[in-house]
């Protein structure tokens, strides 16, 4: 199984060994699939709406649910593995680490604390800079939305964002030169009932 997993990881562009990836999956499984029979009970109604909007399954556990839950755990592990440290983000942007921490503090970058250290999802970077329009989009995200919800939104195709007739993710929309205000309008609705 290891050679096949190595091939999949390499094809996906993930710079992690199979053992490290499986460790990330195990960690994500513990975080995302707690033994609680009703995971929705952990969240407020607005948080539940935001999490289900980006594809998380919060129904009580049933044996038939194991496959979708496995997909969610793997998606979380990939997101965590592809996220950058403060030092990596600073090198990419050509700035000091204090600038990255400042941007996190004022909402110009998004991240989460993982074992005491910041992790910054890769979706918000493009080339040697940040995603075009990022600041406008992040300013519109409700303050109660976790970084993982924002990452899910930014990387999920949205029917309100067509490029050449195809639905694209907010990230792809911005990379294609789309108006950041359209993404900001959608982002402002994160956590609100549809």
Give your account of this protein's structure:
It comes from Saccharothrix australiensis. This is Excisionase family DNA binding protein. The protein is mainly α. The chain has two domains: 2-44 and 58-82, no CATH class; 86-187, no CATH class. It has ten helices and six strands. The chain has helices at residues 2-12, 18-32, 45-53, 66-82, 86-93, 97-105, 134-140, 147-154, 170-175, 180-187; strands at residues 112-114, 117-119, 125-126, 129-130, 158-163, 166-168. A two-stranded antiparallel sheet has the order 1-2. A two-stranded antiparallel sheet has the order 3-4. The chain is globular and about 45 Å long. The model has no long low-confidence stretch (mean pLDDT 82).
Share of residues in helices: 40-55%
Number of domains: 2
Tell me the series of helices and strands, N- to C-terminal: HHHHHHEEEEHHEEHH
Mean pLDDT: 82
What coarse outline follows from CA principal-axis ratios?
globular
The largest beta-sheet arranges its strands as: 1-2
Largest pleated sheet: 2 strands, antiparallel
Task: Give the helix/strand class.
Answer: mainly alpha
Overall radius of gyration: 17 Å
Give the helix/strand layout.
Layout: H1 2-12, H2 18-32, H3 45-53, H4 66-82, H5 86-93, H6 97-105, E1 112-114, E2 117-119, E3 125-126, E4 129-130, H7 134-140, H8 147-154, E5 158-163, E6 166-168, H9 170-175, H10 180-187
Antiparallel strand pairs: 1-2, 3-4, 5-6
């Amino acid at each position: 199984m290891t050679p096949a997993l190595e091939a999949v990881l390499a094809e996906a562009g993930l710079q992690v060994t199979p053992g490290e990836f499986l460790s990330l999956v195990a960690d994500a499984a513990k975080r995302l699939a707690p033994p609680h029979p009703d995971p929705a009970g952990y969240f407020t109604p607005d948080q539940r709406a935001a999490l289900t909007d980006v594809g998380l399954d919060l129904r009580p556990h049933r044996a038939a649910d194991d496959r979708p839950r496995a997909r969610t755990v793997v998606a979380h592990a990939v997101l965590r593995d592809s996220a950058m440290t403060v030092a990596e983000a600073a090198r990419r942007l050509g700035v000091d680490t204090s600038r990255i921490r400042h941007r996190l503090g004022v909402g110009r970058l998004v991240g989460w604390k993982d074992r005491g250290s910041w992790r910054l999802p890769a979706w918000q970077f493009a080339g040697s800079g940040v995603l075009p329009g990022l600041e406008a989009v992040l300013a519109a995200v409700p303050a109660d939305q976790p970084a993982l919800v924002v990452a899910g939104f930014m990387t999920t195709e949205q029917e309100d964002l067509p490029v050449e007739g195809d639905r694209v993710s907010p990230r792809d929309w911005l990379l294609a030169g789309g108006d950041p205000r359209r993404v900001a309008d959608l982002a402002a609705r994160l956590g609100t009932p549809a």
